[in-house]
Structure formats: C-alpha cells, structure tokens
C-alpha cells in the first residue's frame, strides 16, 4: 500500500505550523501502519499526479487563501494560484481512497471542490478560532470503529473551535471550552472513499501523546479498508447532502 503525504509549503505554508517536522512524524506513523509513505511539498503537482496506486492521502497543509502578513490576499497577488486540475482527486474519491486530514488541513485544498464536499467541515476565517496552545483534554465520543479501545487522553496542542460543519459527520473526539463541546475528530464515508479529520497536530508535541498516536493508528486502520464495503454503490454527495 502506498501513501501520499501532502506537506505545507509554498502557498500551503504559514508562519505557525512546522510542516516539515509534523509531516515527518506522520510519515513514521503511516509507515508503522504498513504503508510505503512519500512526503510531497509540491501539493498541487502531487494531486495532479495522484495515481491508482495511492491508497491513502494525508493532508497536512495550510490555507492557500490565507492573507499575507501585509494583508494582501491571494486574489490580489499576481500569479499566486497555479493551474489546478482536480481531475485526479475526483477520480480517486470515486474509485475509493482513504483520506486523513490533519489540523490545518481543515482550511486547505480550497481549489478542490470534491475535497471540500468530502471533509464535511471547515476552518472558516473570522468564525473558527482556538484558545492559546496548551494542554488539551480530549474526550472520545460516539461508537465509530476509530474510537474502539481508546480512552480519553491529554495532549499539548491547539484546540480548534468553531469549525463550520456543512455536512453530516460521525464524531470521534471532542474538547470542551467555556462549557461548550467542540468536535476534534470525525469520520465520513463518501461514496467508495473514507475520510477522517483530526484537528490535533499543531506541532511535534502533539505526536508525543500516546493517546493521540493511538487515535491516528486506529484512523489509519479504518482508512485502509477501501473501497468502503458498505457504501460501494453510493455516489459522492453534493454539498448539503448526507454521508
């Protein structure tokens, strides 16, 4: 099994996330799950070349539409957006692929409509937020197979809050802030494909948590079973549909 890890660089980089170190930690976890892992920083080119031999796609990249420090947006920058061809990703989702989206991946791949539909929820500027980096108490919820055998755990991380859901999710983990529960991890079956979003993973300290590593290992195991056996004949939903 081959896995492709998209690591934030170029228009997918930002000043806050050390993508080289977190992608290296992810590559180790992916390899331990039995995959041959490849890390690519040329995100759009990697997606154009996404072949049928790739069974797992890991998105560990940032927001391509993030304003620069001087406030200039991508739309105001000449040549900032390369030619984007979503065809290969569309085909992968249609035939069946596992997708693991980490942390800032909730704001990434905005030029790929199929990814936007598949993920089920997004980090939206001026709506989503997080409290200061620190110890997070992660509460496991629901009865999805990814949470089997897992207990609540702590992790040094950012706690993404106020993520905007635009479709049905199967919750796996939550955190509590000011008495409100916020989703931290969820799963979705999208046609023949499977997706897990994990809002944790800001930097390498996140991967020092045994509980977080166990969550990722369970996610990788579940994602390896594609095409999804229970949804093999279900088309990829359009925005606003159900999983």
CATH topology description: Rossmann fold
Radius of gyration based on Cα positions: 17 Å
Mean pLDDT across the residues is 89
CATH superfamily: Class I glutamine amidotransferase (GATase) domain
SSE sequence, one letter per element = EHEHEHEHEEEEEEEH
Note the overall shape.
Answer: globular
Number of strands: 11
For the record, give the distance between the C-alpha atoms at the N and C termini, rounded to a whole number.
26 Å
Strand order of the largest sheet: 2-1-3-4-11-10-9-6-7
Largest sheet: 9 strands, mixed
Q: Output the CATH class name.
A: Alpha Beta
Helical fraction equals 10-25%
Strand residues, percent: 25-35%
Whole-number total of structural domains: 1
Description:
- The strands form two sheets. Strands 2-1-3-4-11-10-9-6-7 form a nine-stranded mixed beta sheet.
- It has helices at residues 19-32, 43-48, 87-95, 113-119, 210-223; strands spanning 2-7, 36-40, 54-60, 98-102, 121-122, 134-140, 153-157, 164-165, 170-177, 180-190, 193-198.
- 21% of the residues lie in helices and 26% in strands.
- It is built from five helices and eleven strands; from the N terminus they run βαβαβαβαβββββββα.
- The protein is globular and about 45 Å long.
- It has a single domain, classed as 3-Layer(aba) Sandwich (Rossmann fold), CATH 3.40.50.880.
- It has 243 residues and is of the alpha/beta class.
């Amino acid at each position: 099994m081959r896995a492709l890890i998209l690591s934030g660089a170029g228009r997918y980089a930002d000043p806050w996330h050390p993508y080289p170190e977190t992608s290296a930690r992810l590559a180790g976890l992916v390899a331990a799950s039995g995959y041959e892992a490849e890390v690519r920083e040329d995100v759009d080119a990697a997606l154009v070349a996404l072949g049928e031999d790739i069974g797992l796609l890991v998105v560990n990249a940032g927001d391509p539409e993030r304003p620069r420090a001087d406030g200039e947006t991508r739309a105001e920058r000449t040549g900032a957006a390369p030619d984007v061809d979503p065809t290969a990703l569309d085909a992968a989702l249609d035939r069946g692929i596992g997708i693991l989206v980490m942390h800032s991946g909730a704001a990434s791949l905005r030029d790929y409509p199929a990814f936007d539909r598949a993920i089920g929820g997004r980090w939206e500027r001026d709506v989503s937020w997080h409290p200061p980096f620190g110890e997070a108490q992660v509460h496991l919820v629901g009865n999805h197979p990814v949470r089997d055998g897992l207990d609540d755990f702590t992790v040094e991380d950012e706690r993404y809050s106020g993520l905007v859901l635009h479709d049905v999710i199967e919750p796996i983990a939550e955190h509590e802030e000011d008495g409100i529960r916020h989703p931290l991890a969820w799963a979705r079956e999208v046609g023949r494909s499977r997706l897990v979003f994990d809002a944790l993973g800001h930097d390498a300290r996140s991967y020092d948590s045994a509980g977080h590593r166990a969550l990722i290992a369970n996610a990788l195991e579940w994602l390896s079973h594609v095409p999804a056996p229970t949804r093999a004949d279900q088309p990829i939903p359009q925005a606003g549909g159900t999983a």
